[in-house]
Automatic annotation (TrEMBL), chain B:
It comes from Thalassospira povalilytica. The chain crosses the membrane at residues 13-37, 57-80, 92-108, 114-137, 149-168, 197-215, 244-262, 324-343. InterPro entries: ABC_transp_permease. Its main location: membrane. CDD domains: TM_PBP1_transp_TpRbsC_like. Keywords: Cell membrane, Membrane, Transmembrane, Transmembrane helix. This is Sugar ABC transporter permease. Pfam families: BPD_transp_2 (PF02653).
Amino acid sequence: MTGDAGAEAMKGNAPAQLEVRGVTKAFPGCLANDDISFRIEPGEIHALLGENGAGKSTLVKIIYGVLQADQGDLIWEGKPVTIHSPHDAREMGVGLVFQHFSLFETMTVLENIALAMNDVRDMAVLRQKVIEVEKTYGLPLDPDRHVYTLSVGERQRIEIVRCLLQNPKLLILDEPTSVLTPQEVEKLFETLRRLADEGCAILYISHKLHEVKALCQRATVLRGGKVVGGCDPREETAKSMAEMMIGQKLTAPDRGKQREFGDVRLDVTDLSLISDEQFGTHLKNINLKVRGGEIMGVAGVAGNGQNELFQALAGETEHEAAPDSIKIDGKSVAHFGPRRRRRLGAAFVPEERNGHGAVPDMSLSENGFLTAFRRMALAARGLIREVPTRSFADNIIKTFDVRTTGAGAEAGSLSGGNLQKFIVGREILQDPGVLVISQPTWGVDAGAASAIHQALLDLAAKGTAVLVISQDLDEIFAICDSVVVMSEGKMSKPRPMADVSIEEIGLLMGGLHDLEGNATPANDMEETGGRVGQA
Amino acid sequence: MVRLEPRRQHSQAMVYLSPVLAIFMTLVVGGIIFAFMGKNPFDALYTFFILPINNSYGISELFVKATPLVIIAVGLAMGFRANVWNIGAEGQLTMGAIFGGGLALYFHDSESALLLPAMFVLGAIGGAFWASIPALLRTKFNANEILTSLMLTYVATLFLSFLVHGPWRNPEGFNFPESRPFPDAGLLPIIYDGTRVHLGTAIAVFVVIAGWLLLSKSVIGFQLRVVGKAPQAARHVGFRQKRMVWFTLLLGGALAGLAGLFEVSGPIGQLQPQISPGYGFTAIIVAFLGRLHPVGILFGGLIMALTYLGGELAQITLGLPNAVTGLFQGILLFFLLACDVLTKYRIRFGSIAAKGRTA
């Protein structure tokens, strides 16, 4: 047991809300959980830390009854329990906000919530309850919207609302803040603290260590399926916890000296575009110029037009942008499809890895071929050249330290971080002149994230114009030279990173209406300022 | 307790084993059905599956029947890979026979060596034309090609029926609903004397090899696999789905049309109201039995051809209804789809609790 790590959280000899004892779970070819033990007290906010593949998700699935442990016990309020299914778990009082949302896209918010409840008798009553919870916890959401029309951030709210409706005694959150503004994160934390004060235990899984530091009283660190330690996050630094997670020293991304910027390589002028999606965000007069060697960040809350911007730049949209509204190295590409843009030296990395950036049930070799066959000359006379295709994939795997069984492995068998390294590597090795990358480290562990950040910095140092669309402000502050903010399909003026504060960006994320140029941070925002400060 | 456990990767072994397993289970269930019909299951299975091919003529007939199945299935598999569900190969086959056969009837006194190649071309055009209708409806109006292609099958077969009952009926044919016999120049040469094995069979082998090259080695084959497996990824890299719909439907239609032409200018030798015992539909099963892979389809085609021969023989010697053929084909498809679960999942026996320490 690691209970001694946070003695103050222990309330005398009262039984823990949940105690995990010696849980072991093996999958074909890997031991996902190896003799894991820890305990969560009622009212405690407990962090579960670990890289992707450390076994966090497996452990969560065991607690939630999705998987069964091969060995070990779960002790709930002092009594050993067997949790056969999520239904059992919910019955006991376990709520889970999944990292990958388990929502039915063609159904409404309310219907999705009803599906996850153990017994729903009256939809009208449920609707009332939903609206109540939304009000209490500040989670605005129209119960009658269809899920496919919602942004990632809004989808997450459904998951949170449906957990809260069940008055959970243990709430598990898997990477919950990746889609929120700093202000929204603070609001979520208030919600969580209030829940904890009411006696609800919270198991909080995140890679954002400063958040863990701000919120959690105790942390259990997993590595390679084993518990490697526990700590009090309030007494650690983000760096020390990250090193505990990855088991080695962490180096901050090396930004190099003050870099010189070259000519404008990506030029977007007055880009307006009707969204292909029924409830999508239309782009309104987007202007931005990214110079060679520059990394520009696009901040904003999910669903404010970032996906539409990415699709417009990548050439995926059905509607065509106005002529000359998008230029790559001075050449107008608005009427070009993705392949012709790539031929001009542009490269793109979408937010979703599985099914968008990569084909999950094709091999890494084939996935390398997917975007690179023209620039890397992997095809000749209409046929795939097997040897160069394979060695290109091998090269990505080697250069970007992708952990896999080899180029023949299916992309879907890789962990999120490793697949992301592969995809980013695939684009970088094509030596692009312009790289547009969306959420480069979404759901990626600290080790892989810092490798990706370094790779982007190195790429820019070689003269590439890089546009990073990200909801993670830390990421933008860590690697970008300048930043723009998107809100409701509009974009703020670019600002050098050096003279913009996190509060200003937070305010711009909330709406651009009267803030163009001279933003004056409101008083109530100041308290959030220190939280996301850079080390 | 028996439960299914997801595999980390698709099992390559099961991809190839599952058709074998499905065939085995089909035999078992088929035997049980024969027993219920009052036949000795071993005799019946012997009659159905062994007797048709225990002499060289039987084996040659197997190739004759497998020829259209393989040609059509290779084309269909391309579409299925790209999530284009052309169910109307039977209609495209019929249209191919009408177009190519029409040419032979028009030049019914021709001795030109060019007639047969021209019929090939026209047969392929006929099938592709018929498939272009669902392609157009799908790409312009987003109409489901499963329905449109299937419905067009009935239009095509009725059109053929109209032709041979009316305008194209043989004037010297005693009013039978048949066309004139094709001229010799419009008949496929027999490539093995004393049998009905014709040039089409050799072309089927060529189609298999070309199909394999296209699917596994070519950029366009890669594109259609990506479109099928991950449409959004295809859009991301600029592989146009509409282009794949056109490509696969035209290719599938052309091959079905060619197969139809081979039937009328090969074993049949004229146009009749009925030119195919459902090859276009059976080819769907062949495509899946062959794992949507041209080489697999070659084997799948031979197996399904055997069900046709066995069905005929069972009718003659055992007095079983012709429906037995369809029954076997259906059971086989059923087990095949069921066994495919095993490529993504493994079966585990024993309860979960037995391994853990439960209080």
